Amino acid sequence: MFCTRCGHTNEEQARFCEACGISLAGAPQNLAGPPPFRPVAGVRYAGFWRRFLAVYIDGVVIGGAFYILLVPFSLLFYVATRPASTGMYGPAEGMEALLGVVGVLAIIVGIVAPWIYEAAMISSSKQATLGKRALGIVVSDMQGRRISFGRATGRYFGKMVSSLTLGVGYIMAAFTERKQALHDMMADCILTVKD
pLDDT of 124-179, one tens digit each? Predict the structure, then answer.
């Protein structure tokens, strides 16, 4: 049975909606599917600009971590390529290994770290990255529950699809009823503002 207030699918014998708690007694049966979207009273969806600022803050956090790790490797690179006693520049012994380590670090910091950062924090009990927490945004499933690490991972990599649409997938958050971007719809998630 679909709840006429929030659209949640409940067991046929349920007396109250599992998601919003409204009484289902006497609710009309809707066999064609969920009712059209109706905003749930008291729920504020996170809008485009609030989300944009949260992404900016997260970018500063990830960028800061990248530069903190980059400085020691830059110093190692300088030491490895400084002039020899002959006054000529040239690769020091083991330079190839150092460049390989720097390349692996760049891949880890540039691809793996942002994914783990976002997926782990969104699937945590806080349900938000540091940027989202700063702005009071919470990521949840359509019923307001915490999402799994797997779903958070799907949402993160779904951002690639939002990017491939020349950013239209992101801009959708300004115009959809629940303020969902394309990757939110793909992962069946909503972003709400915590009071």
Answer: 999 999 999 999 999 999 888 899 999 999 999 999 999 998 989 999 999 998 99
User: Whose CA is closest to 54, among 126, 167, 134?
Assistant: 134
CA distance readout (Å), 17 to 21, 88, 143, 165: 5, 77, 11, 37
Angstrom distance (rounded) from CA 58 to CA 60 = 5
CB neighbours (10 Å) of residue 134?
14
Three-class SS of residue 190? strand
Length of the chain equals 195
Residues forming a β-bridge with 190: 140
Alpha-carbon dihedral sign for residues 103, 56, 67, 139: negative
The encoded tokens of residue 171 equal 């801009």
* 191 phi and psi angles, rounded to 5 deg: -115, 120
**Alpha carbon distance 84, 86 (integer Å):** 5
